């Protein structure tokens, strides 16, 4: 970054750091202790919808890579499209298999990146739930290299539990690189994996 960029307030985009995903299992322990939220075993990678043979080949490679996991039952990842036109590669594991889920999310992101689809990657999420059924996602913003909590209010349409999100942010400040700009805490309504 040059002096002119500093004077004009321009910043360099943050390079994605997929290894940040590996901090999720330790953050989950902190989350369970401080808020009683536990992993659901569900997670997903969101990207701008891609069509064509190159993407289909990448999807097959991810499927084959994750099929190699002999402990898994059922399909490793499933491709879903949401109501907003985005695509999600969804992974489902057991609630106690968060490290394996993180490996799945990392593998999907890495495969997309290596095959030239990095610009289409938007976010990844891991789902959590408390004893009362409240849902929570820890969302990783691919282009920012940061996390934020997303907590939809149950039965309230498209409304969020902002106090819970702020509480989770404070609880995980030492475990995850939290997105400081609250305007970037985008809602992921109806996200598969949540």
Keywords:
194 residues; alpha+beta; six-stranded antiparallel sheet; 23% strand; globular
Can you describe what's shown?
This protein has 194 residues and is α+β, with helices and mostly antiparallel strands. It has one domain (16-184). The protein is 32% helix and 23% strand. The chain is built from 5 helices and 6 strands; from the N terminus they run ααβαββαβββα. It has a 6-stranded antiparallel beta sheet. Strand 2 (77-81) and strand 3 form a beta hairpin. Helix 3 (53-67) packs antiparallel against helix 4 (98-117). The longest helix has 20 residues, at 98-117. InterPro entries: PspAB-like.
The total tally of domains equals 1
Total helical elements: 5
| Proportion of helical residues | 25-40%
- Assembly annotation: single chain
Which regions have little confidence, pLDDT < 50, spanning 5+ residues?
none
Radius of gyration: 17 Å
**Derived structural class:** alpha+beta
Strand content: 15-25%
**Strand sequence of the main sheet, in spatial order?**
2-3-1-4-5-6
Alpha carbon gap, first and last residue? 38 Å
Task: Count all strands and give the number.
Answer: 6
Please, what is the average pLDDT?
A: 87
InterPro entries: PspAB-like (IPR054383)
Describe the structure concisely for a colleague.
Pfam families: PspAB (PF22742). Helices cover 32% and strands 23% of the residues.
What's the helix and strand layout?
Layout: H1 3-8, H2 24-35, E1 38-48, H3 53-67, E2 77-81, E3 86-92, H4 98-117, E4 121-129, E5 135-141, E6 146-150, H5 162-171
């Amino acid at each position: 970054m040059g002096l002119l960029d500093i004077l004009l307030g321009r910043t360099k985009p943050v390079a994605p750091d997929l290894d940040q995903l590996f901090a999720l299992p330790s953050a989950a322990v902190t989350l369970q202790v401080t808020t009683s939220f536990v992993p659901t075993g569900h997670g997903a990678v969101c990207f701008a919808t891609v069509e064509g043979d190159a993407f289909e080949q990448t999807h097959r490679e991810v499927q084959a890579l994750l099929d190699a996991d002999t402990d898994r039952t059922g399909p490793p990842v499933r491709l879903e499209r949401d109501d907003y036109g985005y695509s999600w590669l969804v992974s489902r594991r057991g609630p106690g298999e968060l490290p394996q889920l993180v490996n799945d999310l990392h593998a999907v992101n890495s495969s997309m990146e290596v095959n030239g689809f990095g610009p289409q990657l938007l976010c990844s999420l891991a789902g959590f739930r408390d004893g009362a059924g409240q849902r929570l996602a820890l969302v990783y913003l691919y282009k920012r290299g940061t996390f934020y909590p997303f907590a939809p209010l149950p039965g309230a349409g498209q409304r969020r539990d902002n106090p819970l999100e702020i509480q989770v942010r404070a609880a995980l400040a030492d475990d995850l690189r939290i997105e400081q700009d609250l305007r970037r805490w985008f809602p992921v309504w109806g996200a598969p994996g949540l």
